[in-house]
């Protein structure tokens, strides 16, 4: 198993761990409106990069399967939060999807450069 696959699996576990924390265990927001959407975007951009590094480097196309994985993981993560006494938000899942797309797109651009 490659180091990238292990890294992706560890990162997914980290995401679920943070999602398991109660609202009181999380740091306060920065005061910026919708700052949590920026965090979701960045979190899933990293996941997109890691998934591409683990599985997409040899593919010729965009990696829609990897994008689908990240989107499904983001939706499952929102459900996981709801199950652990936090609220789920469809806009968080949308920010997750946008971040995953951006991370995968960045990998494609860098690869072609």
Number of helices: 4
Q: Which structural class is indicated by helix and strand composition?
A: mainly alpha
Order of helices and strands: HHHH
Helix content: over 70%
Broad shape: globular
Total separate domains? 1
Number of strands: 0
Mean pLDDT: 89
Low-confidence spans: none
Main sheet specs: none
* End-to-end Cα distance: 28 Å
Beta-strand content bin = under 5%
Radius of gyration: 14 Å
Write structural notes for this entry.
- With 113 residues, the protein is mainly alpha-helical.
- It has one domain.
- It is built from 4 helices and no strands.
- The protein starts with a helix and ends with a helix.
- The model has no long low-confidence stretch (mean pLDDT 89).
What's the short story on this structure?
The chain has helices at 3-20, 35-56, 64-83, 90-112.
What structural keywords apply?
113 residues, mainly alpha, 73% helix, 0% strand
